TrEMBL record:
<dbReference type="Pfam" id="PF03401">
    <property type="entry name" value="TctC"/>
</dbReference>
<dbReference type="InterPro" id="IPR042100">
    <property type="entry name" value="Bug_dom1"/>
</dbReference>
<protein>
    <submittedName>
        <fullName>Uncharacterized protein</fullName>
    </submittedName>
</protein>
<feature type="signal peptide">
    <location>
        <begin position="1"/>
        <end position="27"/>
    </location>
</feature>
<keyword id="KW-0732">Signal</keyword>
<comment type="similarity">
    <text>Belongs to the UPF0065 (bug) family.</text>
</comment>
<dbReference type="InterPro" id="IPR005064">
    <property type="entry name" value="BUG"/>
</dbReference>
Length: 324
């Protein structure tokens, strides 16, 4: 009898130790490299944000955070890849609001659901679209753009379909008489290269993709396509000041994990993101190039995705965006 009681106690002790070891292993996240997948090509605003965030998270976690650009199909290639990844926190997606818009734009042709396929972590930052031309362009302002479009085709590049830049362009097309042609690229980087190379007449991209080019005079900003002036480029007029209506549609950049990722891991990543974007040097870097650091909680991000999913179908159809 005594031996039986002793053996029972030993078994209980082993169970307790095993549970403790399991808890310690879980608390060790991350203990290997983390992949951060981006849906656009290098060189744009999202790439700048993603690489800066990866650097900060890697420093906090003391493991490499590897950025992987998976451009194409309006961001759907990257989103689908992450949606199918193991829900263990080691594959994350940094994307924009085209994740939600694409459900309408690519009806029946995408393999993920923006709400059901992901575990939202945080909106990392927001930024407005800006319309820019080359420094030697004969178009000096929105009035000049209107005049040019009335006389010839004006080709304007964006980082692709569905994002806030594309939606801003469709609103511009509705309000500028004449012909404004959309030229989509696989990210802001390629769109800006095309602009500087003379392939297109103008580009609408997120402000951080061109803030340094505005500062050094390589491109001229015609308007920041939001209601308020930007502290980064305070000399550039707002959409309203040049007679354009943009309905306050400013883009966000958010971090997500595959659906099924544990709430513990989601919250661990969110806390690290919050620490990263509130770190003074990194925050100052983001603000200087045109980002508004946010780092809101997972529940708030989930609510934003649900809200956008409700309003985007009507918004996209009313703005005249062509379905793909």
């Amino acid at each position: 009898m005594k031996f039986s009681r002793f053996w029972t106690r030993v078994q209980r002790l082993v169970v307790v130790l095993m549970l403790g070891m399991a808890g310690s292993a879980q608390a060790a996240y991350p203990d290997k490299p983390v992949r951060l997948v981006l849906p656009l090509a290098p060189g744009g605003a999202m790439d700048v944000l993603g690489r800066g965030l990866a650097e900060r998270l890697g420093a906090l976690w003391k493991v490499p955070v590897i950025v992987e650009n998976r451009a194409g199909a309006g961001g759907n290639i990257a989103a689908d890849q992450v949606a199918r990844a193991a829900p263990d926190g080691y594959t994350l997606l940094l994307t924009g609001d085209m994740l939600v818009a694409n459900q309408t734009l690519f009806q029946g042709t995408i393999n993920y659901d923006p709400i059901k396929s992901f575990a939202p972590i945080s909106i990392v930052a927001a930024t407005p679209p800006v319309i820019v031309v080359r420094a030697d362009s004969p178009i000096h302002d929105i009035a000049g753009l209107r005049q040019a479009a009335s006389q010839q085709v004006v080709n304007i590049g964006t980082p692709g379909y569905g994002n806030s830049n594309h939606r801003a362009l469709t609103r511009l097309q509705q309000q500028v008489p004449g012909t404004v042609q959309h030229v989509p690229y696989k990210g802001a980087g390629p769109a800006v290269v095309a602009l500087l190379g003379g392939e297109i007449d103008a580009a609408i991209v997120a402000l951080p993709a061109v803030s340094s080019l505005i500062a050094n005079g390589q491109v001229r900003a015609l308007a920041v396509l939001q209601d308020n002036r930007s502290d980064t480029v305070p000399q550039v007029p707002t959409a309203a000041q040049v007679g354009l209506r943009m309905d306050g549609d400013t883009g966000w950049f958010g971090l997500l994990a595959p659906a099924g990722t544990s709430s513990d891991v989601v919250n661990d990543v969110w806390r690290a993101v919050r620490e990263a974007v509130t770190e003074p040097d990194f925050r100052a870097r983001l603000l200087a190039i045109g980002f508004e650091p946010i780092a809101d909680q997972p529940r708030a991000f989930a609510d934003r995705i649900a809200s956008d999913a409700d309003k985007f179908p009507t918004l996209l159809r009313e703005s005249g965006v062509a379905l793909q």
